[in-house]
Design a protein that fits this description.
It is a single chain. The protein has 112 residues and is an alpha+beta fold. It has one domain. Helix content is 15%, strand content 22%. It is built from one helix and six strands; from the N terminus they run αββββββ. Strands 3-4-6-5 form a four-stranded antiparallel β-sheet, with no helix packed on it. A hairpin with a 6-residue loop joins strand 5 and strand 6. The longest helix is centred in the N-terminal third of the chain and has 17 residues. It is globular, with a radius of gyration of 17 Å.
């Protein structure tokens, strides 16, 4: 009986982990857009080192906490007109392969 209850609890926890938003946040590594299923408009910038989860077609204030909408600034291998990038204060805030870049916004952003 205890084994059955533990099995049921395990199944319920597995379903809870798979439901909801899921996916990587802005700035997380990715190999496919499915890895970045954070919200509508999520995508993966595949040419960037390890891939880079982003949200496209953003507007000022529409990116999640810890990210900033970049518009009119073209980084290499990015075809989006506007997209979210994770914010940073210094190099150590960005993951390996990325640097903290000043793009004339209130915050710097992590980019290759």
């Amino acid at each position: 009986m205890i084994a059955v209850r533990l099995l049921a609890l395990s199944a319920a926890l597995s379903l809870a982990a798979c439901s909801g938003e899921g996916g990587g946040e802005v700035g997380d590594p990715c190999t496919d857009g499915v890895d970045c299923a954070y919200r509508a408009g999520s995508a993966c910038i595949l040419p960037w080192p390890g891939g880079y989860c982003t949200e496209v077609a953003c507007t000022l204030g529409s990116c999640p906490t810890g990210a900033r909408c970049v518009t009119g600034i073209q980084f290499q291998d990015v075809d989006y007109e506007s997209y979210c990038l994770s914010t940073c204060a210094q190099e150590g805030d960005c993951r390996a392969g990325y640097r903290c870049v000043d793009v004339s916004l209130p915050e710097k952003v992590c980019a290759p």
